[in-house]
Design a protein that fits this description.
This protein is of the alpha/beta class and 479 residues long. It has three domains: 188 residues, 3-Layer(aba) Sandwich (Rossmann fold); 180 residues, P-loop containing nucleotide triphosphate hydrolases (Rossmann fold), CATH 3.40.50.300; 74 residues, K homology (KH) domain (GMP Synthetase, Chain A, domain 3, 2-Layer Sandwich), CATH 3.30.300.20. The chain has 14 helices and 16 strands. The strands form three sheets. Strands 1, 2, 3, 4, 5, 6 and 7 form a seven-stranded mixed β-sheet that branches. A hairpin with a 2-residue loop joins strand 14 and strand 15. The N and C termini lie far apart (73 Å). About 13% of the residues have low confidence.
Length: 479
């Protein structure tokens, strides 16, 4: 596979960059809101476009609005990095507003830095929804860009022409891959229809055949973006003492120990009473979606503040969606002067406050100083390895019957037991009467299962189902 065509989208705030990104990507990936400055970090996604029977790998990069009021310097740095790595730049403009001094300043900076000479820069005049706006296009040629294209990202107008114009510049990157009409129809159906799966049938999801997703979550200003930068070894995410710097979930590929992981930096989740309307509510929704797709979550805690009620609620959300989890106590370097407060005492407090996550390993670190992260790589690998474990039905049935004899106060009878899922690890036990499975026996099963097979860092679900009685067949009469 050839290297993807890097398409970088830039422009001042609120011209529709994220809407264009979503339209070109084909999904609602970037957070879109009327409030300017919603996008701050570089958001990158990979997709494929088709032209003349060839498939072209494309890397789309959305950037923050240049010239906004908040995080202006940080956003400009991220835009500069993105543009330097671009194969083509889409300079987005607003047809309803026309050319502004900010647009002119940004294009002058592209010229001054030499980007225009080495990289194609297309003027994408957005929000062209009527002939009235078409008549005003001539003023955008005054910027001196190579080409001016009109689109409406919101309504999908001009997208095919834009893709074609981009791909025709990189015909050498295309790969011949003809597809039969029946296959195309089948592919379209698969993307639009969700297959219903019976409760006891698991769709195999082998982590060895895809890139594991690791979500970094926590309340605002605990150091989530700083942690991701430390893992990546670069300033990929904008960091700031201001709570709520990250508002969208941002994906970043990283190599750890020779293995590739997709790390997802998420917006901080505040208490519902303190969550403002609009973009912050959307950020919380994005974070929950990121957790639902993740294989593992790193819950970042604040070493200065200790465990709060909000940390407990976020931990509860992780357990609810069935994600594996690591508890990372960040800013642990701030406790150096507190000699009596050891890691053992801190871990005891965490276990007491978050008893429902007692299976989660705890890491003490300082993301800012890149301290305490040495074991994170092996820990992630081991948790995901154990999460993938599949226990044979015969072995699990025998184990359940044996363990039920150790502590079974209500004398429940166990029959066939099997593992029905791995994300999270889920087990179904067929019993004579589910009401006879005492809560202490349920707890014993889970504890003994972890002692026998592990599942470190992962929630374990055990379901008890009443066995259906079988009708006895009449005996054959002897002749």
């Amino acid at each position: 596979m050839s290297s993807p065509i890097r398409v970088v989208i830039i422009g001042r705030p609120n011209v529709g960059k994220s809407t264009l990104f979503n339209r070109l990507y084909g999904k609602r990936r970037a957070l879109v809101h009327d409030e300017p400055g919603v996008t701050r970090d570089r958001l990158e996604e990979r997709t494929e476009w088709w032209l003349h029977g060839q498939v072209f790998p494309v890397a789309l990069v959305d950037t923050g609005g240049v010239g906004g009021d908040r995080f202006a310097v940080e956003i400009e740095k991220q835009v500069k990095i993105a543009v330097e790595q671009a194969d083509i730049v889409l300079f987005v403009l607003d047809s309803k507003v026309g050319v502004t001094p900010l647009d002119e300043d940004l294009f002058r900076e592209l010229n001054r830095s030499g980007v225009v000479k080495k990289t194609p820069v297309l003027a994408i005049v957005n929000k062209v929804d009527a002939e009235l706006h078409e008549d005003r296009i001539h003023e955008f040629y005054s910027l001196g860009m190579e080409q001016v294209l009109t689109v409406s990202a919101e309504h999908g107008r001009g997208m095919d022409d834009l893709k074609r114009d981009i791909l025709e510049r990189f015909e050498g990157r295309g790969i011949d891959q003809p597809i039969e009409e029946d296959e195309l129809i089948e592919a379209e159906v698969e993307t639009e229809v969700e297959t219903e799966v019976e409760t006891e049938t698991e769709v195999e999801d082998d982590l060895s055949k895809r890139i594991p997703r690791v979500a970094i979550v926590g309340k605002p200003n605990v150091g989530k973006s700083t942690l991701l930068n430390a893992i990546l070894g670069e300033n990929r995410m904008i960091t700031s003492p201001i709570a709520g710097t990250t508002v969208d979930s941002v994906d970043s590929l990283a190599q750890l120990g020779g293995k590739t992981y997709l790390f997802v930096d998420t917006a901080g989740i505040r208490r519902k009473s303190k969550t403002e309307q609009g973009v912050e509510v959307l950020s919380v929704v994005q974070t929950r979606k990121a957790l639902e797709k993740a294989d593992l979550a790193i819950l970042v805690l604040d070493g200065e503040q200790g465990i709060t009620d909000q940390d407990e609620k976020i931990g509860g959300l992780i357990e609810e969606v069935g994600c594996s989890v690591i508890l990372l106590m960040n800013k642990w370097d701030t406790q150096r002067k507190n000699e009596g407060f050891t890691k053992e005492l801190a871990a005891e407090k965490i276990r007491k406050k978050m008893a429902y996550l007692r299976y989660a390993p705890i890491v003490f670190a300082s993301a800012l100083r890149s301290q305490g992260l040495e074991d994170l790589e092996s820990l992630i690998e081991e948790i995901l390895h154990q999460r993938q474990l599949k226990i044979p039905t015969h072995d699990f049935t025998e184990w359940v019957r044996k363990e039920s004899t150790i502590h079974n106060p209500m004398n429940a009878k166990f029959y066939l037991s099997h593992q029905s899922g791995r994300h999270p690890p889920t087990f179904v036990c067929h019993v004579s009467d589910p009401d006879k499975v005492h809560f202490s026996l349920r707890r014993h099963f889970v504890n003994a299962l972890r002692e026998r097979w592990g599942y470190m860092g992962s929630p374990v679900r055990m379901l008890f189902v009443e066995v259906k009685s079988k009708r006895r067949l009449p005996r054959k009469k002897k002749v």
